[in-house]
Request: fold
Amino acid sequence: MARLTIGGRSYDVEVRGDRVVVDGHEYPVTVREENGYEAVMAGGVGYRVQLPAPEARASGMEVHVDYRPFTLEYEGRFGGSATVRPARPASQPAGAAPRAGVKGGVTAQIAGRVLSIKVKAGDQVKSGDILLILEAMKMENEIRAPGDGTVREVAVTEGARVLEGETLVVID
Reply:
């Protein structure tokens, strides 16, 4: 069992063969090497993970997930090859989220994949209108406008993987 701290949040993680248990929730995991990185499938979601050389692996190490750098800190025994998707890039201070804090930004409440985008820049939206559909843990989540306004920017593309706290759409 290991205690991982990522983005100011801590998780209890245990590797059980081809499964990983994160805070009591079990997910099937497969890992295969591919041209200098690990192709990880966790709970039905694929990730491209680059780890430092084995001799450089320690708490506070930098890893890359889907080409983004992250700092992974842990306490306890952390065996196997399980990968936990970090909640913030390493270049940002603890507690910060990618592109979070953008005025008028609508952020992802959970990490997932953008299935479809229902708006474009310049569209007028009303409170409660569906902006996009985000798939997380095999569930489709409707991301709705928090208020009336004009879509200034759609910060993601269909098929993109997003992190918790990442800005999806900006509304003026």
In short: Residues 105-171 form a domain with the OB fold (Dihydrolipoamide Acetyltransferase, E2P) fold (CATH 2.40.50.100). The CA atoms of residues 2 and 78 lie 5 Å apart. The mean pLDDT is 76. The first strand starts at residue 2 and ends at 6.
